[in-house]
Write a structure and sequence with these properties.
With 115 residues, this protein is α+β, with helices and mostly antiparallel strands. Helices cover 56% and strands 21% of the residues. A 4-stranded antiparallel beta sheet has the order 1-2-3-4.
């Protein structure tokens, strides 16, 4: 019984310690944007240049339009592209244990991807 409690307590402490920050999310967003642009533009010299520039822009801009909700052991990140109260164009991610998981895509991206 005590071992289980100690293991659970250590797991919670580890999750708190590895809860991603906004800077971690900005780095993730830049890399994610770069990969998405490269996929669309193709792995050419122009595609790599565009993806690098787009990734840098996304990393700089994402902090301005993202809301982070910190729950100590994990965080949620909501990117509000249109600045409205509508959730249709929000992109939501879960940050836990140093990783990010997409929870919801903007409606416009779901429509264009055929989802």
């Amino acid at each position: 019984m005590r071992t289980g409690i100690v293991v659970a307590l250590l797991a919670v402490i580890a999750l708190v310690f590895f809860n991603p920050s906004m800077d971690d999310f900005a780095l993730f967003a830049a890399t994610h944007a770069e990969n998405m642009i490269l996929e669309e533009a193709g792995d050419t010299m122009l595609g790599r240049a565009l993806s690098g520039a787009g990734g840098n822009l996304a990393g700089e801009y994402v902090k301005r339009i993202t809301e982070r909700d910190n729950y100590l052991i994990f965080s949620t990140y909501t990117i509000d592209f249109d600045g409205s109260d509508s959730d249709e164009e929000d992109w939501e991610f879960l940050g836990i244990a140093g990783r990010f998981v997409e929870l919801e895509r903007p409606q416009s991206m779901r429509d264009s991807a055929g989802d």
